[in-house]
Each structure stands twice: as structure tokens, then as C-alpha cells.
Amino acid sequence: MSAQNPSPPLHHLLREAARALAAMRQGRNLDAALDAAPQALRAGAQALAYAAVRQQGSGLALVKALVPKRPAPPVEGLLLVALAQLRGGGQHAEHTVVSQAVQAARQVAAPQAGLVNAVLRRFLRERAALESGLSGDEARHEHPAWWVRRLRADWPAHAEALLAQAQQAPPFTLRVNRRHTTVPAYLQALAEAGLLGQALGPAWPDGLWVDPPCPVQRLPGFAEGWVSVQDASAQRAAPLLVHGEGTLPALPPGARVLDACAAPGGKTAHLLELGDFDVLALDADAQRLPKVTDTLQRLRLSARTQAADARDVDAWWDGRAFDAILLDAPCSASGINRRHPDVRWLRREADLAELARIQAGLLDALWPTLAPGGRLLYATCSLFAVEGRDAIAAFLQRQPEAHLLIAPGAHGHLLGLPDNAAGSPSLPPGDGFFYTLLQRRSPPNA
């Protein structure tokens, strides 16, 4: 930054990161907790907090070894943030991190500033022994033990790679709005703006990758709706539903389409970029629904929006059948774990059963609103089988009219690994997702 706009002091960033981490450790979403930080500190605090969360398993083990009694939440959060910086990847010298952490401690818990100083200095003296003493799945893999166990059960050949991939920074992928521009034209616009982009390839006709990432304000035409930020795996949803992957004819103009869990609106917008459809965007969270409207307005698109639980069909459905339904169901978000590393620590194993119940309820409630011959795309940003292949297997047993359309990319888990069949080894992998495309057929005895 310039002299007129200097970088914030490190101790201010440590303070805000520690407060956010303490809130997360008490069950709050990390990004929501970071929203409480002053705007000028938010980006720096987020970087520090994310680094600490990605090392939380081993970080907590180190704190336990260094402090006999669990510290108060703000102090524990500060120790986790500072230890993550001391253990590598930080931009500051060790002595700077320690001294700045002590200053931050004076702001969040003044009586504990001496404790913070002593703990961090002891870690630096005894680092080798402390690090070598770490054991157990949580410390070695930086994920809850139950999460590791589930991945090993569902993906025995890929579990270790999935855990490692979750520790990597996610790619910055974009989707061009084909109503305004094309991938080649936008790549040229990026080059003229001094940014480096690369097309994702035939499977993602509207997708490209920008490296290094940049603020959206630097993207040419972002405010005018030329482009959106969307992961490569998420970009598969709209084309699968609209084009049917060669197993069904493309949706015609005017087709009635339901986006049952629409917020924040990225997939809703992609549907409308692909065709002139009559789209109803539902979301159970009335506070999130305005994000759909904001997204559509920026992209110069329009759809009907309504706040409603899609399972309560009588509250929102007008009785006219839909030609297509996108059900991007609430899930564990285990597939976007690298983008939101707090997910792994906020979720409990018991949550999976409740989420599976919600997913089944949505499928059962929405199926009767689908026209005969219509299609439903079921999606979850999850790696867990209970939210993907197991959920669909159970639904097919309950619903004899449901026909599974098996086509490349239309059915199955996208694991988000470099060698994933849906991706290219030369490009960064997309997030973990599950997709399956279903068609409503006439009952067997009809």
C-alpha cells in the first residue's frame, strides 16, 4: 500500500482473526464472524483465520501440550492464529509474530498477554519435539476424526488425496455470461487488463481460470454482468439440466424451470444465460433470497423469486408442472471444504443423518411437481456417499417413476482431484460435487 494508505498493523489483524476464530470455535460460521471486523482489516484477518483453521487439528494439540488448562476462547483463538504463522507460510519474522501477538492479547484479554508471550516463545524453543509428538487423525490430517473415517469408508483409494486437497488454496474460476461475451473475447479483455486467464475446456464452454486470483473489481465488465465467479464443478449444473448430456433434447424456450434452493443465485443465473426459460427461484432463507435478486440484476437477467421451503409445496406451487427442476440440496458442504475450511469443524457426524432426511424430503416433495417426461437434476456439494449415491439409490427404490439417466458427467461424484475423470490434469480441479439426472416416466402399471 501507499504511504497514504498503509498496511494495517499486524496486531490489529491478529486481534480480529482471533476473535473470529473464537466465535467459530463456539459454533459460528467463520465468514459471518469475520464480517464483524472493520472493513479495512477484513481481508488480512480472513487470511490469518483461514490459515489457522486449516491447521486447527494440530494447532489445538499444540495448545493442549503447551497450556495445561484450556485458555479462554479469545486467547485460544489468538494462540491458534499465531502458531499457524510461526509454523510456516507466514510473511512475518518469528519475533514479529510473537511481539505482535502479545500486543493483540493486550486488546482481547490483557491479563493473559504474559501467557501468550510465554507459550509462543516456548513453542519456538521446543518446536521439533512438539511437532514430532503430534499424533492421531485430527492432528495429522487437520480434519475431525469422524470426517477422516467417513472418507476412508466412502473412498478408500482416494481418502488421503481428498484430505490433502482440502488443504490447498482453491482456484479462481469464472463463468462468462454468454449473453454478453465469449470465453475467447473475455480472455483478451483479461490480457488487456494485465490479468492471465486460461479456458477450462470443452466440458466448461463458459468457464475460465484466472491465476493469480484478484478482487472482482479488477475483472473487466464484472459490474456490467459480463462474468461471474463460479467453481468449475458448479458450472456443470445448468448445462446438465438444460442440455440433458445427449440423453434428452434440450429444454425449449419458455420451459418452466424450478430452482428449488437458489441462493445465492449462481446456478439460477447460469440457467438464464443458457436460454429464455420461465424460472422460479425458491429459497427457504428469506434473508439470503435478496442475493439471488442482486445476482440476476448485475447480470441483466430476470426470474421470479419466492421465499419458501420447497418441501411445503402447498405454500408456493401454483399447480402447473415444471419441465425441469434443479435441486441443489442443503448438504454437509464437504466438497467445498477447501474454500470454507471451517465447515469441517462446524459439522458433526450426527448432522449427516438430519441432512439426509432433508434431502429425501425435498426429493419426495418436488417429484410430483415435475411434468411427465420432465427432468430433475439432483446436486450436492458433498463428498459423502450418504448425500449422493446412497440418497439417489434410496429415492429410486421409493419412486418407480424415476428413471436414472446415466451419461458422462451426469451421474456420480466429482471428487475434486487432479486426476478426476471430469477434469483435465493440466487445470486446477473443481470442487467436490455430486450430480445425477432423473427423468419422470409413466408408472409401470399406467
Tell me about this structure:
- The structure is a single chain.
- Helix 1 (10-25) crosses helix 3 (39-54).
- Strand 6, helix 14 and strand 7 form a beta-alpha-beta unit.
- The protein folds into three domains: 10-142, N-utilizing Substance Protein B Homolog, Chain A, CATH 1.10.940; 172-229, Alpha-Beta Plaits (2-Layer Sandwich); 234-440, Rossmann fold.
- Strands 5, 6, 7, 8, 9, 10, 11 and 12 form an eight-stranded mixed sheet that branches. It has a four-stranded antiparallel sheet with strand order 2-3-1-4, with helices on one face.
- The model has no long low-confidence stretch (mean pLDDT 93).
- The chain starts with 9 loop residues before the first helix and ends in a 6-residue tail after the last strand.
- With 446 residues, it is of the alpha/beta class.
- The chain is built from 17 helices and twelve strands.
- The protein has helices spanning 10-25, 30-34, 39-54, 56-66, 73-86, 94-108, 113-132, 137-141, 145-154, 159-165, 183-192, 237-243, 266-274, 289-298, 343-346, 349-366, 389-398; strands at 172-176, 197-199, 207-210, 227-229, 256-259, 278-283, 304-307, 322-328, 370-380, 402-405, 411-414, 433-440.
